[in-house]
Amino acid sequence: MFYDLHMHSCLSPCAEDEMTPNNICGMALVKGLELIAVTDHNSVKQLPAVAEVAAGMGLRMLYGCELETSEEVHVLGLFAKLDDAMSMQSWIDSVMPSISNDVDYFGKQEIMNAEDQLIGTEPRLLLVSLEASLEETIDAIHSHGGRAVLAHVLDRVNSVTRQLGFIPPGLDYDGLEIKSLEQKSRVLETHSWITEDSTEWFIDSDAHRLGDISEPENYMRESVFRRLWGDS
């Protein structure tokens, strides 16, 4: 399956307004993707609409979120079942600081329905660190039936290697997100405790604009999908 498991909707304040459920799914379909995940910052509230649209277009979907830990590390939580993903919201609410969003400074945080109609906004700023450590965040993802993928591990301020300096040995993640095979080689060269077969590797777009959604270049075998997420 050609996939892209890291993209943001218009609920994320850093994403463009064009990132609505229908636009995301439509662009993924046009580009030839077969499996997608929308992973908004510290929220799963856009997922029901995206799931409805994806099902109508025949797109396979995982249900996700991008969580920021107290160390400011980004972790993708990916779930096979919508209900499992939605159950994460109560945990997120319990550890997320209540800081009001400044729309003019950070951007809009809009929640759409399956017709791309505005049905609400998130008043709390989503671009914040949760009051939960990296280990606690991964444990929460697992306890809700999800899989934890360390996001953009060699890129950006919020990668695990930028924040901690390395990927900790023994950390109970399920996958590492890279941007290229060259980055995979760099991870292996600098982390002797990680082998090519000891984890799953994902190449995603982290799209905040429609044009940035992945082309059909990154392929996931059905056996990998089933190993991680069962037969869903």
Which helices and strands appear, and what pairs or packs with what?
Elements: E1 3-4, H1 21-31, E2 35-41, H2 47-57, E3 60-68, E4 74-79, H3 82-95, H4 103-106, E5 110-112, E6 118-121, H5 134-143, E7 147-150, H6 160-164, E8 175-178, H7 181-190, E9 200-203, H8 222-229
Parallel strand pairs: 1-2, 2-3, 7-8, 8-9
Antiparallel strand pairs: 3-4, 4-7, 5-6
Description:
Helix 1 runs parallel beside helix 2. The chain has a seven-stranded mixed beta sheet with strand order 1-2-3-4-7-8-9. Strands 5-6 form a two-stranded antiparallel sheet. It has a single domain, classed as TIM Barrel. It is built from eight helices and nine strands. A hairpin with a 5-residue loop joins strand 3 and strand 4. With 232 residues, the chain is α/β, with parallel strands linked by helices. The two termini are 14 Å apart.
What labels would you give this structure?
31% helix; two-stranded antiparallel sheet; seven-stranded mixed sheet; globular; single chain; alpha/beta
Question: Gist?
Answer:
This protein has 232 residues and is an alpha/beta fold.
